[in-house]
Amino acid sequence: MTRFTAAELEAARDRLVPDVVADGLRVLFCGINPGLMTAATGHHFARPGNRFWPVLHLSGFTPRQLKPSEQAELLSYGLGITNVVARATARADELSAEEYREGGRLLVAKVSALRPKWLAVVGVTAYRAAFGDRKAQVGPQERAIGETRVWVLPNPSGLNAHWTAATMAEEYARLRVTAGPPG
After folding, report:
1. 3-state SS string over 3-46?
2. Residue 1: its pLDDT value, please?
3. 148-153 and 118-122 beta bridge pairing
4. Using CA atoms, how far apart are residues 125 and 32, in angstroms rounded to an integer?
5. Fewest CB atoms within 10 Å of the CB: 48, 55, 155, 175?
6. pLDDT in tens, 38-77
7. Which runs of E-coded beta strand occur in 75-174?
């Protein structure tokens, strides 16, 4: 993994990171917003402490643990990645309530166009803020976007101490089983 200086990471602030998407995905994973490491590398969930890639493998979504630089391989499994808010920040708490709401509106338009089977928002707090659903819990939601069902997953950030990689993998696996096999 490339080491970045503090100045290089700060220079990545507000950068946009391209989505990894295609029409008709099985699951479109949706992060909160890119962190500075993600923006610096151009690879989603790139921060070393982030557990997204290990949990994706532990849950059975991928046959091996992918590196962030291998994110395009997700498409071969019917998986993709986007974010609620596109701009990169050092921390999610730098985002405003309006950015979350606007991100939710843009996400609905994106999901309507791409028509994944499931939208999986990784982070209950982000889901609540983006969709104005203060009572949402981890798991499948009543909300649908057209034919796309919505599932809220635990945030894989290393800062989320309420969930271990193993307990996260169990929740991700529930979605995997529900979403069915690739293809």
Report:
1. CCCHHHHHHCCCCECCCECCCCCCEEEEECCCCHHHHHHCCCCC
2. 57
3. parallel
4. 9
5. 48
6. 999 999 999 888 899 999 999 999 999 999 999 999 999 9
7. 79-83, 118-122, 139-145, 148-153
Pairing mode, if any, of strands 27-31 and 79-83?
parallel
- Reported residue count of the chain is 183
Tracing tokens 């920040």 back to the chain, one arrives at 89
Q: How far is CA 168 from CA 30, 77, 124, 176, in A?
A: 15, 20, 13, 12
Report the CATH architecture of 6-179: 3-Layer(aba) Sandwich (3.40)
Per-residue burial over 119-144, b = 16 or more CB atoms within 10 Å of its CB, e = otherwise:
bbbbbbbbbbbbbebeebebeebeee
Which amino acid is it at 109?
A
Torsion of the alpha carbons at 137, 142, 148 and 153, rounded to the nearest 10: 10
Task: Name the nearest CA neighbour of 92 among 103, 106, 79, 81.
Answer: 103
The 8-class DSSP code of residue 150 comes to E
Work out the number of other CB atoms within 10 angstroms of the CB of residue 176. Answer: 23
pTM: 0.94
Spatial separation of the C-alpha atoms in residues 133 and 50, rounded to whole Å: 26
Distance between CA atoms of 147 and 57, rounded to whole angstroms?
A: 27
